[in-house]
Write a structure and sequence with these properties.
222 residues, mainly beta, Jelly Rolls, 7-stranded mixed beta sheet, 5-stranded antiparallel beta sheet, 2 helices, binds 2-oxoglutaric acid
Length: 222
């Protein structure tokens, strides 16, 4: 998403993409422990999210520093303009399968790394080719990924829910998620568990993985 700095007195015209209701579809922790073989293979999020259109953005918020040493997220500039690339494997995982884990052929001379200090964030489009290798350092890397969609986008991989965070939802494609009335409200904790399990089934559809609790997954629902 191009974000151009503006200066002077010109009043910026709002970007038309910012109009209309917006929802949060997912929040996930991407935690890579120190000296852990876990990795996220090169992928486009659009492979996993089951959306009617490639119209979504993730805010990746660093809860700890993300550096070259602890293997911050890497990406291929401009790759968000590509179409959907057919996946050869399902690749959000913690363990290499057999060394052929690259789902998307990547020109490594183009790749860039996004280093962040705690509290900083990056934004990535749902079609951006990105991933990160295992963390060989002594430093744990913690990212919190918040996935946003416009309410005009519909789920294609079965029933799905989202939390409206801006404007109105005139489309009603996603089941609206309620707000908890207090911390650790037992009813809401149970609902959160059900939502998390449904989300894992969407993300890992077509594989033998049915839950984030399985050891092969790296993603943990927030
Ligand atoms: O944390 C990482 O290295 C990858 C995160 C990711 O794939 C995502 O936020 O979509």
């Amino acid at each position: 998403m191009p974000l151009e700095p503006r200066h002077g007195r010109e009043s910026p015209r709002p970007d038309p993409r910012l109009r209309g209701g917006k929802s949060c579809r997912t929040t996930n922790f991407f935690i890579k422990e120190a000296a852990d073989p876990a990795f996220v293979s090169w992928h486009q999020d659009s492979t996993y999210w089951g959306l009617s259109e490639p119209d979504a953005v993730t805010a990746w918020v660093a809860f700890a520093q993300a550096t070259e040493a602890n293997r911050a997220m890497e990406y291929i500039p401009g790759s968000h303009k590509l179409d959907q690339i057919p996946p050869s494997r399902h690749l959000l995982q913690t363990q290499p399968f057999d060394g052929q884990e690259v789902m998307v052929e990547v020109d490594h001379s183009q790749q860039r790394i996004i280093t962040l200090r705690p509290g900083e964030m990056s934004l990535h489009h749902v079609r951006l080719v990105h991933g990160s290798p295992p963390n060989p350092s002594n430093d744990r890397r913690i990212g919190f990924a918040i996935g946003y969609i416009p309410t005009s986008v519909a789920p294609l991989a079965g029933e799905d829910s989202a939390t409206l965070v801006r404007g109105d939802d005139r489309h009603h494609h996603f089941i609206p998620e309620p707000q908890p009335s207090h911390d650790l409200d037992p009813e809401f904790v149970a609902l959160h568990r059900a939502i998390t399990e449904r989300n894992a089934r969407i993300l890992y559809r077509g594989t033998e993985i049915a839950s984030y609790n399985e050891p092969k997954t790296l993603v943990q629902r927030g």
